[in-house]
Amino acid sequence: MSTDDTGRPGTGTASGAPAGTGTVGIKQVASHAGVSPGTVSNVLNRPERVAAATRARVEQAILELGFVRNGSASTLRAGHSSTIGLMVLDLANPFFTDVARGVEDVASERGYAVILSSSGESDEREQRNLRVLAEQRVRGVLLTPVGDEGDGADGLRDRGVPVVLLDHPTPRANQCSVAVDDVAGGELAVRHLRDAGARTLGFVTGPPGLRQCAGRRRRALRALRDAGLGRDVLREVPVGAMNARAGQEAARRLLESGDPLPEAIFCANDLLALGVLRVLLQAGVKVPADVALIGYDDIEFTAAAAVPLSSVRQPTYQLGRIATELLLEECDESRGHAHQQVMFQPELVVRESSRAAAEDREITQA
Amino acid sequence: MSTDDTGRPGTGTASGAPAGTGTVGIKQVASHAGVSPGTVSNVLNRPERVAAATRARVEQAILELGFVRNGSASTLRAGHSSTIGLMVLDLANPFFTDVARGVEDVASERGYAVILSSSGESDEREQRNLRVLAEQRVRGVLLTPVGDEGDGADGLRDRGVPVVLLDHPTPRANQCSVAVDDVAGGELAVRHLRDAGARTLGFVTGPPGLRQCAGRRRRALRALRDAGLGRDVLREVPVGAMNARAGQEAARRLLESGDPLPEAIFCANDLLALGVLRVLLQAGVKVPADVALIGYDDIEFTAAAAVPLSSVRQPTYQLGRIATELLLEECDESRGHAHQQVMFQPELVVRESSRAAAEDREITQA
DNA sequence: CAGCGGGGTTGACACGTTTTAATCCGATGT
DNA sequence: ACATCGGATTAAAACGTGTCAACCCCGCTG
């Protein structure tokens, strides 16, 4: 059968690798190496089962023909692909970027590809993108759910696709999750601010619609209570987003309210804190002498800020790594897999922005 | 049809779609709707060819059975998938993050999924990940190549996979590319610094092995020459990475060298600039009074820095959008597609860090 | 009334791979 | 020398969808 379907109206007219060959599949490799397609498949998937001599011959043929396996056909036949889905809330947030790096590294090590999706904190987009992932027959999904309940992925789980919740503790025992102890983090921050001498506290938080924010707010309140302080010393400043601009907005509101500034401000997010910091400094407020400031996430830029920001560090990269390892484990041995809820402990990182006035004689040493 | 799956999100097990059903494919839908598989396929792909009545019936069946099309089979049969690959240099860089957002938005709009890869500025990883993309039979690839020559993707192009170069102008006419005019950007920055009164210039640049850095260095030199300045006024400070830590390192080296500081510093990257800024401020150097400072990329954090950083803005998000649109266009109508090299013009963003002492009477307006 | 045309629908095949059962061949044990 | 065994290889049957030619039905025209 002389299959010369070369009538390609193709654009880029061939160069480099053996071009012109319509599509080089397992069959072409087989005939070129003088074996059957089945053997080629074996070379690809269970090299140990094929004699060294033939294996070499096949590998040679693969190289010469520039064959790359067709993932679709493979997936179709095997029933599962070698890609995993990663759905984050916001790509622009360095927190998720770090997580994604961890995910990508592990996945890449194991030969998995990562399909990255961003829900943009929208329920509807989350659903739409999850559907795309389902169509792609991803092997599993790492999901930072938008809603409180992680049930947006129930559809996937019912279809037998493992789902690991990211940065979201789950009450349900029938799924894996990886998260950081938010309550402990809030406690660390609030206790630290109190220890630094603050009697009144401002709390800058994102839109309450966001699960993340709701959670962090609850956690802050609880930490306050645990610290023996009443809600009356707390001043909440809700803002519309979780970025630096919103932080500036929040600080302006605090300044213009006429009330005295709180002695310390806890921001639900480093981006917010950076914005707050800038406006305070511009207004001549001294940080931390007048107002102590602490953020959350410990993104890279906090350390580089004019007054280096205290923050609560989360093992973001590790978060991604562990979650991926958990997911791949669940994929590989779904039989004996025991779901586990991993909870990391956050770590307080104290920098200039919140050092007690007592211990810092010379902050900005210029 | 007693569909009792109405609003019962509470019960953990078995909810949503009919569970237990092995795999629901096009056939099951067909028999459930009393039509042939071919018709179901038509409903999915060419709805206009099927009568309204049957279409409704089929759609109903799809809904009831919770059918989602098997992308692998679809791809296999159709010969091309509905995913595109995006390979960036470094996920941790907000520049690429922004680009990725643009890509994701457009792709998502058109029903494409995005497979995100990071080469981590490593040639070997680029090759490995491109191979994975090839296996996945992506419809096309957006690539920010590591090497000077964008030939790492030639293998893909030969296989008929459209490749659009991202943030990398190409000399070759047989491919699309989207980039920002680096030379113009360098000129903007250098000219601006000179206009602000700087006579000597420091240039902090990343590892020369990186194409990005090599390019930006060349561009800076050229801009200098165009500005009528000799190389003798230039002081180069190469560093090992493109992040804030490296910037701090660079600034320290400048300070400790004993030579007088340059009157202005141009950083190849905002992250570097942030690091430089911090160290300068700590050392008591006034910005911009003593040293003017400008970065590149205009990432979000520059505006929020203690001394807001001047920068050269690139339309990052747009970069991603346009590149994706170009790619999808090339995919859809590969016949009549004319390759084009899009070149954006960068924009100078002047903030406090580089205002001439003359023009700023009152910078901090609070 | 016969022929015709066309929209709607159908079957069946092909896509490239994995996998299972069957086949082949040389070597081993008696 | 024959039966047997085991490793290496093969042939063929799926996997779920898209495509295309064929087909059917019905109304319309000559």
TrEMBL record, chains A, B:
Bias kind Low complexity: ranges: 11-23
KW Transcription regulation (keyword) present: yes
Source organism (scientific name): Actinomadura napierensis
Name recorded for this polypeptide: LacI family DNA-binding transcriptional regulator
Annotated keywords: DNA-binding, Transcription, Transcription regulation
InterPro entries cross-referenced by the UniProt entry: HTH_LacI (IPR000843), LacI/GalR-like_sensor (IPR046335), Lambda_DNA-bd_dom_sf (IPR010982), Peripla_BP_I (IPR028082)
PROSITE patterns the record matches: HTH_LACI_2 (PS50932)
Record-linked Pfam families: LacI (PF00356), Peripla_BP_3 (PF13377)
Keyword Acyltransferase recorded: no
Location of the HTH lacI-type domain: 24-78
Segments for region (Disordered): 1-23
MF annotations from Gene Ontology: DNA binding
SMART domains in UniProt: HTH_LACI
Gene3D superfamilies (alphabetical): 3.40.50.2300, lambda repressor-like DNA-binding domains
CDD domains linked: HTH_LacI, PBP1_LacI-like
